[in-house]
Design goal:
- It is a single chain.
- By secondary structure, this protein is of the alpha/beta class.
- The protein is about 40% helix and about 20% strand.
- The protein is built from eight helices and nine strands.
- The strands form two sheets. The protein has a seven-stranded mixed sheet with strand order 3-2-1-4-5-9-8, sandwiched between helices. Strands 6-7 form a two-stranded antiparallel ribbon.
Length: about 280
């Protein structure tokens, strides 16, 4: 049976604790593909600039903060006045509070909170709400509706929500995800008083190709195979010089694929994940 939100929460309670226990430094907290990160982070920075989102000197909310991937992203690249991270797994919040709770130049706050709780009130409104790899892990319709309304209610006027979505033409259900179609997402946003302000493709091979319609036996299976191969290559034993060469080569493949497609089709039609910007 496909997982529901409570199943996913229980999984991450254990996952974040295990990562925290095993990590000797920040590199041990990584929970993402380094090739994806190297391509995605500059795209996100450009998107923030293009959308004129008040990040420097503003207030940021990171929803589903996990092991701190996006906490580190914002602390390393921007100077917000305040950065709040929330997660429905208490193990995540305990880890983040211990590791990032006393930052030297940014006010950081970490709280256990469930985005799907009806009428959630965090006591603040934000210039940017970062909600990465979260919304498609909320399969229940009522909880998803609550989540969209809570996001909208925590925006300052002119603020933006940025989420990772796939935006296929048809809704897809996997064991872990309910990947809603672009039409369902647009309707859910409208129901919360939001609109889609921008879509920016952020990966090709380095993430699930759920933006591709059709069965797993078709084109999506080919993308899965390439992604699996990339992960296998990155897990091989190699010296630092070879590893750096391989990583840079894979980054060039990923970037060239994105740029080639972007010259020919709209970002929403790209095969893998997109950064989706919501505005009131």
């Amino acid at each position: 049976m496909p997982l529901m939100q409570e199943d996913i929460r229980r999984h991450y309670e254990q996952a974040w604790k295990k990562i925290d226990d095993n990590a000797t430094d920040e590199s041990g907290l990584a929970y993402s593909n380094p090739v994806e990160d190297a391509v995605l982070y500059p795209i996100y920075q450009r998107l923030i600039a293009d959308q004129k989102i008040a990040v420097d000197g503003g207030k940021i909310l990171d929803v589903g903060a996990g092991s701190g991937r996006w906490i580190r992203f914002f602390l390393e690249r921007f100077t917000p006045a305040m950065l709040m991270g929330i997660d429905f797994a208490s193990s995540s919040v305990e880890m983040l509070q211990r590791r990032y709770g006393n930052h030297s130049s940014v006010k950081t706050i970490f709280r256990t909170a469930d985005l799907t709780e009806a009428g959630l009130d965090l006591g603040e409104k934000f210039d940017l709400i970062n909600v990465m790899n979260v919304l498609f892990h909320i399969p229940e319709p009522d909880r998803f509706s609550n989540a969209m309304k809570n996001l909208a209610n925590h925006l300052v006027p002119g603020g933006r929500i940025v989420s990772t979505e796939y935006m296929p033409r048809t809704t897809m259900r996997t064991n872990w995800m309910l990947v809603r179609s672009r039409y369902e997402i647009e309707a859910a946003a409208a129901g919360a008083g939001l609109r889609i302000a921008a879509v920016r493709a952020s990966s090709a091979y380095s993430n699930d190709p759920m933006g591709i319609d059709g069965p797993d036996s078709g084109v999506r299976r080919q993308f899965y195979n390439v992604r699996s191969g990339i992960n296998q290559i990155l897990s091989l034993e190699m010296n630092d010089q070879v590893r750096q060469f391989v990583k840079q080569f894979l980054i060039e493949i990923e970037s060239s694929m994105l740029n080639f497609c972007r010259e020919r089709v709209a970002d929403i039609e790209m095969p893998s994940q997109k950064l989706v910007v919501f505005a009131a």
